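Request from the bench team (R.T.):
"We need a structural guess for the complex before ordering more pyridoxal-5'-phosphate. Sequence and SMILES attached. Just send the tokens back."

Command: build protein-pyridoxal-5'-phosphate structure.
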Amino acid sequence: MINAPKPSGSIPDRSIYERRESVVRSYARAMPRQFGKAEGVWMHDDQGGRYLDFLSGCSTLNYGHNHPILKQALLDYIAADGIAHGLDLHTDAKAAFLDTFEDVILKPRALDYRVMFTGPTGTNAVEAAIKLARKVTGRELVIAFTNGFHGMTLGALACTGNAAKRGGAGVPLAHVAHEPYDGYFGPEVDTAELLDQRLADPSSGLDAPAAILVETVQGEGGLNAASPEWLRKIADIAKRHGALLIVDDIQAGCGRTGSFFSFEEMGFTPDIVTLAKSLSGMGLPFALTLFRPELDQWSPGEHNGTFRGNNHAFVTATAALGHFWSSDAFADDVRRRGALLEERLARIAAEHGFETRGRGMMRGINVGSGERAGAITAACFDAGLIIETSGAHDEIVKVLAPLVIDDALLSAGLDILETKIRDAMADDYAVAAE
Ligand SMILES: *Cc1c(COP(=O)(O)O)cnc(C)c1O
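Reply to R.T.: structure attached below.
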């Protein structure tokens, strides 16, 4: 069903990347092709190769590439000379987005959040969230978690666990404590209790926090999914200790876990929520910070930015919310498909004694080492499947298929993954036997 990419004949000169592009590039190293087109679940390279996309821009393309309804909305808007950039001026596109977000997302969930348009990327939304929490509480410390990932600007980077990423800062990353996430010490240790105990102890050395910043499923940090009980405890701890609960829903939100927000129906409401990645629905940069109205204590322009509110993204986000979220049908389908994914990954994992991770359509397999995971994803790529790794040692092969993928293609992609894991294990066995 999936055509392996054509063997490249004469590859055009690609030396421009070596010559001019910074060596900081990363994904392009694991997938050394030049892509020209994409539609739905497929990406095409310029050599006639076609790839099934199980990365989806790290969950930025939950509705697939160039969804026809979103694309048409944007084409119509541009053709009519709609505002492309307007700082934070009121525009038709902004009003339509806010109305739709209120009607389709907030009201049905009985959520009363103010909507702050931050700079366009996820890290901007995180910066705004922690800045606001510090301003409102008058406290400095943010509690973040082991394996958390929150972005690359200094404030968000300080909240990120990964040493290699932190090492790029060049200055001390201060005012953040990294506490053990759910399950960090294994199933026997309740890390929420440990946190509560230390916050209650005036001599623990842990300062009173402005905020507790958490992902419900750690996207980059290895697809660790916190239990609803643990998250409820964290929400309660935040409340009792006068800290604001920030859920970073940049990767897990917008439907990835089977509901629009990843914390729905868990019995707590975050004080602040960040959204980005799939919010525009079409891969356009667009981020939001949501917070309880009482927390809206900014002075006008206090947190500013040239690209706050990307009008083209308003248009595609409005179309995506209207199309996918006006009824429960889409979320029901994502949950059903997430269960299929879970079952299939569990079977693949069991064959090799591996563990699965994650929730909804955000799942992966711990294959034991980053080296093995890299070999598996490289082999998948050669067979026409785009798939990446995650985790402290890049040891988790993660499946982030578009949420709109049909069951047959999901299954076909998983067939490739299953085969490549088997091949990698056979290779390891052969090496060990030598
Ligand atoms: C991707 C991500 C970010 C950072 O978003 P950028 O758009 O890369 O700045 C922050 N938090 C989480 C959970 C993410 O997955």
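Two things stood out. DSSP finds 14 helices and 15 strands in the chain. The first strand starts at residue 35 and ends at 39.
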